[in-house]
Amino acid sequence: MSLRPLWLSLLLVCSFSSVAKLEEFYIELKDHIFVPERIELPANKKVKLIILNRDATAEEFDSFDLNREKVLFPNRKAVIFVGPLKPGEYEFFGEFNPDSARGFVVVKEPNDVH
């Protein structure tokens, strides 16, 4: 009997369980404004950023600092994985409404996150 299928199954279970344990942080897009405008994340950890687009139009989440872009469909939820990141500020914006849809991810050491 080959152990290969067993190892692959174990690897998949471990992979899924590590994703499920990620901390989640929420941002809403409403009236082409990200709320909160500044969100604090823990340093040196991969996290799940969940963006709820409450607008009736699409937006594109863009961040050169985070190296991420994602279409935010109207009245839908989008998930973006970020990190691990070093302490600092990382800007993001809505490509379709860059003057109003702006924000910052503020990364702090875990004991400094509020």
Helix content: 10-25%
Biggest sheet strand line-up: 3-9-8-5-6
Rounded to the nearest angstrom, the radius of gyration is: 17 Å
Spatial shape: globular
Which percent range describes the beta-strand content?
Answer: over 45%
SSE sequence, one letter per element: HEEEEEEEEE
Oligomer description: single chain
Distance between the termini: 52 Å
Overall pLDDT confidence: 89
The beta-strand count equals: 9
Description:
The protein has 114 residues and is mostly beta strands. The chain has one helix at residues 4-20, and strands spanning 23-30, 33-35, 38-42, 47-53, 59-63, 68-72, 76-82, 88-94, 102-108. A 5-stranded mixed sheet has the order 3-9-8-5-6, with no helix packed on it. A hairpin with a 2-residue loop joins β1 (23-30) and β2 (33-35). The chain is globular, with a radius of gyration of 17 Å. The termini are far apart.
Task: Compile the SSE list and pairings.
Layout: H1 4-20, E1 23-30, E2 33-35, E3 38-42, E4 47-53, E5 59-63, E6 68-72, E7 76-82, E8 88-94, E9 102-108
Parallel strand pairs: 1-4, 3-9
Antiparallel strand pairs: 1-2, 4-7, 5-6, 5-8, 8-9
Concise account of the structure shown:
The chain is mainly beta and about 110 residues long.
Comma- or semicolon-separated keywords:
1 helix; five-stranded mixed β-sheet; mainly beta; four-stranded mixed β-sheet
